[in-house]
Design a protein that fits this description.
The chain is mainly β. It contains 1 helix and 5 strands.
Amino acid sequence: MLAQNPGLKTSPTLHCQYQFRVGDRVEKFNHCKGTVVRVDIDESGVFIVVRFDMLYGEFTHDPYDLVIIQ
């Protein structure tokens, strides 16, 4: 049996917080490509701010809507 640490909690949103970093190239489900401007947390959870190549402005997205590209 594995020992468990009751003080250590994991969360899917906590995992996504560290998945994206400023400067990462990302792609949406509709193949729009852009660059991560910042990763923020509010009362709803983690959100990613992206500046897309073909669109003017910055847009917020759920981490699950984006994929890191090389």
